[in-house]
Design a protein that fits this description.
It contains two helices and eight strands; from the N terminus they run αββββββββα. A hairpin with a 6-residue loop joins β4 and β5. This is DUF4489 domain-containing protein. It holds the Pfam family DUF4489. It comes from Lacrimispora amygdalina.
Length: 200
């Protein structure tokens, strides 16, 4: 009868061992603190993307030799660069300037300053403070002059010219004065979040 239903012979003497693992325990279900979800909109963490874009530009390398016996009040351009700021909004510009000052038996008093001159404008707007370099007695040496500046109120202009110039101060120069490796470096930082909000 068993064989007819299941298709296999029934073995009376066959023993079946069923073993159980007494040490096994049912897996614990994960617990959740329902008080945490759902959170209100103002309580949920918000991931902010990078808000600032940075653009760099540097001036061309060069240098100048001051004419012998430069008169007091004479000015010379050391470095310059043009920036197109018309496409940016809510931005500031950081500047770094450095140069070498080589003198041979020179007596001098120079003033360095960074200014801004917009297109079709004759007025120069100071961007940095005044930085002086002076030798009251003739000297033969090489020195480094550097300074930083920030234009926090730049104008939107197709051609905005930034100039580092020197002015002879105090007395006429003597000896040989050479300005080498002048570099003006600009970093324009724009706030994209403000642009998206349309703030001025």
């Amino acid at each position: 009868m068993y064989n007819c239903f299941f298709g296999m012979p029934f073995r009376r003497n066959m023993s079946y061992n069923r073993t159980f693992n007494n040490n096994s325990q049912p897996a614990h279900a994960k617990t959740y603190d329902c008080r945490q979800y759902p959170k209100k909109n103002h309580e949920r963490p918000v991931k902010h993307s990078a808000a600032n874009d940075v653009f760099f530009k540097s001036s061309e390398l060069g240098g100048i030799i001051l004419p012998d016996s430069s008169e007091r009040g004479a000015t010379y351009i050391v470095a310059s660069m043009n920036l197109d700021t018309s496409i940016y909004r809510n931005y500031i510009i950081y500047f770094n300037f450095s140069c070498n000052i080589e003198t041979i038996s020179a007596r001098l008093h120079l003033r360095f300053q960074l200014v801004r001159q917009e297109a079709c404008q004759t007025t120069k707007i100071p961007v940095s403070a005044n930085y002086a370099f002076a030798r009251n007695v003739p000297a033969t040496e090489t020195n480094i002059l550097s300074f930083t500046a920030c234009d926090c109120n730049p104008s939107k202009c197709k051609c905005c010219n930034y100039i580092v110039y020197i002015e002879v101060m105090g007395f006429d120069t003597t000896g040989t004065i050479i300005i080498t490796n002048p570099v003006l470096f600009a970093s324009l930082i724009e706030d994209d979040n403000k642009n998206q909000k349309g703030e001025l």
